[in-house]
């Protein structure tokens, strides 16, 4: 594998048709018997499974090439057709060519001058980057217009194509069917040059070859028969179709030889045409598809290639691979974002080929001795002569280990520190496949750091992920340098970190860094030790009576020196006038030279997908390794903190005092009254419609607005009674999870349920449910839920809630497919674009699309949230912020 | 105030940088502006800043071989999974509904001939922009008024052998129309096929050919006659934005809208890309694609770098006409048979290649994946050659 690796490269593929002579020449057997195996189960000579066509049964040797299964590529046979038949896919081309050529002299129906003119254009077009295909279309059209042949003056008749394969010539005398023999005779006479003008390359494909006189029979390897458990052989669809063709072909031949009446011959000929047509494509419109005995339509040649499950998309554009694994994922907060926990069971199966050298000889020997069953071991040994030793079947591994010399390759187990690719479908962006370092672990799931959940879009409700082991040194180097998680922190989509803290990390960071958090020496030691902090502790903020450190101090220990940034935290109340550093909520974050001086750390500081954050600055200023270290250590610290402190949310967190519930009830009752008033005015016809809307739309809109307002003010009331000590509030405010809306739905009121952006209005005639009167437009009758999730929904509310919830589900289902198709199209349209060494963006054939990518040549993933240069930072670095006017 | 030495020096270096074109103008502009916010600055400090900026710009350049197309496709496609599927109402203008989110994005990359909700945004010339009455007047000139939309009834009077059009005086007043106006418009449309006779709020049309079928046919035609405004614009909404009035239309007709008096022809927007292509040309279309796609993504709260969208827009407009992203556009026009066959309509492409004797030069991605070869992108686009015979130099 490593030594004489072939470096041959295909650099061009030519397409064309097979000439009848070519088909005969490449054939190893003429097939005449419409049968497969004899009573003894041996393939019949000259039958459809002729042994010369290749081997499919293990143990046998090929009669043609002498190879066994797997090495014998299979060999073509051929069928001599008693009468020629048309290739269905080319019927249209044949029809067009016949229209444009003379029925007598078979020349193109254009005058010599015209031909000369087009010849010139044919030379010119490629020079000016035009397609000659368009010219050919024009020529075929013009040729059709001639009434008489410009060459031999013969009168031309109208040609008609009756789909799929019948061609008629209509003269005054009536319409005559042109048999494939007639058509072939005409096509044979057309000169190569005329073909060229009609867009047919006669060197690659003479059109008469599309009228088949000989049919190639694909090798048995292409259509293997399967033996069922009962021992009954079941043939491939293609074989079935070939049997049909041979049977009819033989009958036709016998009838011809016997001089049967024309009518019978024609019927059989037509039947042969049908079988050949469906053999090529069983989905041709105009004829019934050929069916299997069971009634299932046969999957013939075209069906094998077409569509998502066809050869192209499922076997050629996408391939199955070795050295891969898949299992359920689960979280491990102690892992670095760069790592992945791999179960030992998997590590014992996946291998890495490692060449034995003088320097690693002892290690290699030991691995071989440990063998395939003990973890850091090896599964195979490949000798210098290319022989492969399966260590499972080696009795005495110690002796074989002794034979190892430099140049042997040991396929050793995957081990901690190896680099692997990790992937979760759907692979929507490049961060869906990233390189991780292996950590071999017990149990049976892949373990991953929570920081990589956002790029993979992974959670742990049963998600599975795939792992691939690169096998070559180049692949491993590329994976390590380009694909490692830490190199992917900054998304090319917007030039900001896509990896970052989420959920409890954010809550914990808030709890750590808020003003009231103070820690004793012991606590500080525990926290920093978990984070593997090495270095001096800062001076405690409070020295007496006991030494106490603030959370901000602890957090600052992990921010690299020289980081300066200020921004508003997620908990910011968006006051009219920002008090900056003096913010009473501690929502204005200031980091000076790596010290968190003001503000709390929350989603805005290091959350996933949060550009211009503290984390973003660290990566930009100090590099991805510093960024990864920061996140990993802070992550461990925060997990320790929140496990020690505890953090939970329960019913208590959404329980409101009686007073508040009463106020909410009043708000809702008033809203209901208002809605009823609106309905009254509407029914009296006194409502002014909004411009461009009907009366009904207007009243609906007003009702929706009224109810939304009521829900909001109810939420506000709830908010007043849920303080910042409330876990749910902490999560919502810091951006860890949930929103204030979620909270008020739990505590106060769920609110209006909507389907397609409108209040729920359908169900029964004039009403949503039989519990209401017809035409009731009231809040409750149209899906307004006054209960809260905590108090519970009554049956009617529950019904509406389910209706509204279902819409979301349907929406997601539809969206994934439409957006998936859009992405596939974008991908195929853009995938060939590449930045060349001169900075231009070109397509595969070299056409320039952009002179500089994005007009300024900036790589979005290297940009600073879209900016090529962050000028503020550039100036601040030299001048410092203090010198601003 | 005389310019100090340092100011002169700064100006000199800025000019030099502009001439050298090592930085995009916008970056230089921003640097100039931001530096002016600071006080005294030494020549040394200034030079360091400039050098840092240039260095940092050059470090952010794309590397040769980068698969920018793939990254752009991913960057637009991935947020697509998070976008809404529904049509929402236009920001602020409740009565105009505009396709948004994923359907609109698909419409843009499809380069559809007719967007599902065409709209225009028309600004007025600055002199009258603040005048509500002027805005109303112009809006009336833009909004298409059909006979049937001002008529209370269009019927066939069999006694008179005429078509009887009853006009609604209130509607006429609202649209600022007279009976004569309507009559003229009808006459212009039917030409000599009949005679139009206007009277008080009623118009009779006497067709030349007095058969019943002709009457019926003509009455249908008359209903659809455009009396006023520009065709395809069915509704106009006036909104105040800042201190000027802006017209939003339902339906779009850029060509005719530009002719309306009182509008600012430099500030007429439409979301119909084809129309922009026909009226203003391909460069304008490119810009419109970028603007439209960006606003769709931003409105959905998706943070996507413009450069990705610029690439898509450039790809769609590279050959001078708008090309769709898909089978009938870019992907269908690829030169590689294998790439086309792997996308859609496999059989057609393979048969076509067979008869034309096509040669596939295998320069694209799909083709090389199919053959199991290195793809000509990224690390596969370069070769590293090493001579194994050269021994390391001895010290």
Which descriptors would you attach to this protein?
heterodimer, A: 885 residues, alpha+beta, DNA Excision Repair, Uvrb, Chain A, Barwin-like endoglucanases, six-stranded mixed beta barrel, four-stranded antiparallel β-sheet, 37% helix, B: 395 residues, Alpha-Beta Plaits, Gyrase A, domain 2
How would you explain this protein's 3D organization?
The complex is a heterodimer of chains A (885) and B (395). By secondary structure, chain A is of the alpha+beta class. Chain A has six domains: 142 residues, RNA polymerase II, clamp domain (DNA Excision Repair, Uvrb, Chain A), CATH 4.10.860.120; 121 residues, no CATH class; 165 residues, Barwin-like endoglucanases; 142 residues, Enzyme I, Chain A, domain 2 (Orthogonal Bundle), CATH 1.10.274.100; 159 residues, Topoisomerase I, Chain A, domain 4, CATH 1.10.132; 42 residues, no CATH class. Helix content of chain A is 37%, strand content 14%. Chain A contains 27 helices and 30 strands. Chain A is globular, with a radius of gyration of 38 Å. Chain B is α+β, with helices and mostly antiparallel strands. Among the domains of chain B are: 55 residues; 62 residues, Alpha-Beta Plaits, CATH 3.30.70; 84 residues, Gyrase A, domain 2 (2-Layer Sandwich), CATH 3.30.1360.140; 47 residues, DNA polymerase, domain 1 (Orthogonal Bundle). Chain B is built from 17 helices and 13 strands. In chain B, the strands form four sheets. Chain B has a four-stranded antiparallel sheet with strand order 10-11-3-12. In chain B, strands 5-6-8-7 form a four-stranded antiparallel sheet. In chain B, strand 5 and strand 6 form a beta hairpin. The radius of gyration of chain B is 31 Å and the shape is flat. Chain B starts with a helix and ends in a 25-residue tail after the last helix. The interface between A and B is large, with 108 and 111 residues. Strand 1 of chain A pairs antiparallel with strand 13 of chain B, so a sheet runs across the interface.
């Amino acid at each position: 594998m490593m030594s004489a690796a072939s470096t041959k490269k295909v650099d061009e593929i030519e397409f064309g048709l097979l000439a009848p002579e070519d088909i005969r020449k490449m054939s190893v057997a003429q097939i005449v018997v419409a049968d497969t195996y004899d009573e003894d189960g041996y393939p019949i000579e000259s039958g459809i499974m002729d042994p010369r066509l290749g081997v499919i049964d293990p143990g046998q040797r090929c009669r043609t090439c002498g190879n066994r299964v797997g090495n014998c590529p299979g060999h073509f046979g051929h069928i001599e057709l008693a009468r020629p038949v048309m290739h269905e896919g080319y019927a249209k081309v044949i029809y067009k060519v016949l229209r444009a050529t003379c029925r007598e002299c078979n020349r193109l129906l254009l005058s010599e001058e015209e031909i000369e003119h087009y010849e010139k254009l044919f030379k010119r077009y490629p020079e000016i980057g035009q397609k000659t295909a368009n010219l050919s279309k024009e020529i075929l059209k013009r040729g059709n217009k001639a009434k008489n042949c410009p060459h031999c003056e013969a009168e031309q008749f109208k040609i008609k194509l009756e789909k799929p394969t019948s061609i008629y010539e209509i003269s005054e005398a009536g319409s005559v069917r042109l048999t494939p023999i007639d058509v072939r005779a005409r096509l044979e006479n057309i000169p190569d040059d005329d073909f060229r003008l009609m867009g047919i390359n006669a060197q690659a494909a003479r059109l008469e070859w599309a009228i088949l006189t000989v049919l190639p029979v694909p090798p048995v390897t292409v259509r293997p028969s399967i033996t069922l458990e009962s021992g009954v052989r079941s043939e491939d669809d293609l074989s079935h179709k070939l049997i049909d063709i041979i049977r009819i072909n033989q009958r036709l031949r016998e009838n011809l030889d016997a001089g049967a009446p024309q009518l019978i011959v024609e019927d059989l000929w037509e039947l042969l045409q049908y079988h050949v047509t469906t053999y090529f494509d069983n989905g041709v419109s105009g004829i019934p598809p050929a069916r299997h005995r069971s009634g299932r339509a046969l999957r013939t040649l075209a069906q094998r290639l077409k569509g998502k499950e066809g050869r192209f998309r499922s076997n050629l554009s996408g391939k199955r691979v070795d050295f891969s694994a898949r299992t359920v994922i689960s979280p491990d907060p102690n892992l670095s974002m760069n790592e992945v926990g791999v179960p030992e069971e998997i590590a014992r199966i996946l291998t890495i080929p490692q060449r034995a050298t003088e320097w690693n000889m002892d290690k290699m020997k030991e691995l071989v001795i440990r063998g395939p069953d003990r973890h850091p071991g090896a599964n195979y040994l490949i000798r210098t002569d290319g022989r492969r030793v399966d260590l499972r079947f080696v009795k005495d591994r110690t002796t074989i280990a002794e034979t190892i010399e430099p140049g042997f390759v040991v396929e050793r187990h995957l081990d901690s520190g190896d680099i692997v690719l990790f992937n979760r479908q759907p692979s929507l962006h490049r961060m869906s496949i990233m390189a991780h370092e292996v950590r071999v672990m017990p149990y049976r799931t892949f373990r991953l750091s929570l920081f990589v959940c956002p790029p993979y879009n992974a959670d742990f409700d049963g998600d599975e992920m795939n792992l691939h082991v690169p096998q070559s040194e180049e692949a491993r180097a590329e994976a390590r340098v380009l694909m490692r998680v830490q190199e992917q922190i900054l998304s090319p989509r917007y030039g900001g970190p896509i990896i970052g803290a989420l959920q409890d990390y954010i809550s914990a960071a808030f709890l750590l860094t808020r003003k009231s958090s103070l820690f004793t020496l012991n606590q500080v030691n525990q926290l920093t030790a978990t984070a593997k902090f090495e270095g001096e502790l800062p001076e405690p903020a409070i020295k007496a009576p006991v030494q106490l450190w603030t959370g901000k101090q602890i957090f600052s220990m992990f921010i690299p020196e020289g980081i300066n940034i200020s921004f508003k935290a997620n908990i910011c109340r968006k006051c009219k006038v920002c008090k900056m550093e003096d913010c009473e909520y501690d929502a204005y974050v200031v980091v000076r030279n790596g010290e968190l001086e003001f503000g709390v750390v929350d989603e805005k500081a290091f959350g996933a997908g949060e550009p211009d954050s503290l984390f973003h600055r660290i990566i930009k200023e100090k590099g991805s390794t510093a960024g990864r270290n920061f996140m990993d250590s802070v992550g461990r610290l925060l997990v320790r903190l929140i496990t020690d402190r505890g953090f939970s949310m329960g019913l208590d967190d959404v329980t409101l005092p009686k007073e508040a519930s009463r106020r909410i009830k009043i708000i809702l009752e008033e809203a209901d009254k208002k809605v009823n008033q609106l309905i009254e005015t509407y029914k009296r016809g006194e409502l002014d419609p909004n411009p461009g809307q009907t009366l009904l739309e207007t009243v609906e809109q007003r009702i929706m607005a009224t109810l939304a307002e009521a829900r909001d003010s109810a939420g506000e009331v709830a908010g007043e009674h849920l303080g910042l000590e409330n876990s749910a509030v902490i999560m919502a405010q810091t951006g860890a999870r949930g929103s204030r809306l979620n909270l008020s739905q739990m505590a106060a009121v769920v609110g209006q349920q909507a389907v397609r952006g409108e209040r729920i209005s359908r169900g029964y005639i004039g009403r949503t449910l039989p519990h209401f009167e017809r035409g009731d437009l009231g809040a409750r009758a149209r899906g307004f839920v006054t209960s809260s999730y905590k108090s519970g929904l009554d049956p009617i509310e529950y019904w509406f809630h389910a209706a509204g919830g279902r819409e979301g589900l349907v929406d997601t289902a539809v969206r994934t497919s439409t957006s998936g198709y859009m992405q596939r199209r974008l991908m195929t349209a853009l995938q060939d674009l590449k930045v060349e060494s001169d900075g231009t963006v070109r397509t595969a054939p070299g056409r320039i699309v952009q002179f500089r990518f994005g007009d300024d040549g900036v790589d979005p993933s290297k940009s600073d949230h879209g900016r090529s240069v962050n000028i503020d930072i550039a100036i601040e670095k030299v001048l410092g912020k203090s010198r601003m006017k | 105030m005389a310019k100090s030495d340092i100011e002169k020096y700064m100006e000199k270096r800025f000019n030099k940088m502009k001439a050298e074109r090592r930085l995009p103008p916008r970056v230089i502009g921003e640097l100039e502006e931001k530096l002016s916010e600071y006080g005294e600055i030494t020549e040394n400090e200034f030079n360091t800043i400039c050098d840092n900026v240039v260095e940092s710009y050059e470090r952010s350049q794309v590397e040769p071989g980068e698969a920018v197309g793939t990254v752009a496709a991913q960057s637009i496609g991935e947020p697509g999974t998070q976008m809404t599927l529904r049509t929402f109402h236009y920001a602020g203008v409740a009565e105009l509904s505009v396709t948004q989110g994923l359907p609109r994005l698909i419409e843009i990359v499809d380069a559809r001939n007719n967007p599902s909700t065409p709209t225009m945004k028309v600004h007025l010339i600055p002199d009258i922009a603040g005048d509500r009455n002027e805005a109303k007047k112009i809006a009336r000139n833009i909004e298409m008024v059909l006979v049937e939309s001002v008529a209370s009834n269009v019927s066939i009077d069999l006694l008179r052998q005429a078509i009887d059009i009853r006009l609604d005086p209130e509607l006429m007043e609202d649209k600022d129309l007279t009976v004569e106006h309507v009559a003229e418009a009808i006459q212009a449309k039917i030409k000599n096929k009949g005679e139009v006779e206007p009277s008080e709020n009623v118009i009779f049309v006497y067709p030349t050919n007095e058969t019943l079928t002709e009457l019926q046919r003509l009455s249908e035609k008359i209903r659809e006659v455009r009396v006023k405004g520009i065709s395809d614009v069915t509704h106009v909404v006036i909104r105040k934005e800042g201190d000027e009035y802006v017209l939003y239309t339902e339906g779009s007709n850029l060509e005719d809208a530009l002719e309306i008096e009182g509008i600012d022809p430099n500030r007429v927007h439409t979301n119909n890309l084809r129309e922009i292509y026909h009226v203003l040309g391909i460069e304008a279309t490119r810009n419109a694609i970028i603007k439209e796609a960006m606003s769709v993504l931003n409105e959905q709260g998706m943070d996507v770098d413009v450069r990705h969208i610029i690439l898509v827009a450039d790809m769609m407009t590279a050959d001078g006409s708008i090309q769709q992203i898909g089978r009938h556009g870019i992907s269908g026009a690829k030169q590689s048979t294998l790439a086309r066959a792997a996308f859609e309509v496999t059989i057609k492409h393979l048969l076509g290649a067979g008869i034309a004797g096509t040669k596939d030069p295998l320069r694209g991605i799909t083709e090389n994946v199919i053959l199991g070869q290195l793809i000509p992108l990224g690390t596969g686009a370069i070769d590293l050659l090493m001579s194994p015979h050269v021994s390391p130099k001895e010290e």
